[in-house]
Amino acid sequence: xxxxxxxxxxxxxxxxxxxxxxxxxxxxxxxxxxxxxxxxxxxxxxxxxxxxxxxxxxxxxxxxxxxxxxxxxxxxxxxxxxxxxxxxxxxxxxxxxxxxxxxxxxxxxxxxxxxxxxxxxxxx
Length: 124
Description:
Number of helices: 7
Shape: rod-shaped
Number of domains: 2
Low-confidence stretches: none
Order of helices and strands: HHHHHHH
Mean pLDDT: 81
Largest sheet: none
Helix content: over 70%
Radius of gyration: 35 Å
């Protein structure tokens, strides 16, 4: 990931650097560990260190490790779908019963004499 020299200048190890990058990208704020050390560097060195760090951060965020960790975080943050209302199952069962009743009535109608079948006709 980042060059060992850059990490040594900031007194952090590679895992800490990866963790800081991940939480800076996913968190509400951006954090640079030991930023005061940047002030101690010469301006030219400061610019090259920052450019190098930016390049390394960009490379790390494109790695499979980072992408998998980031996607897992996104999945974990997704809201859970609301529970289906309890009465929904009851309504479905009632609809099945009504459907069965209509079906049975249709069968009964077919078995009745023609003159009595007229009373089963529904006019809308």
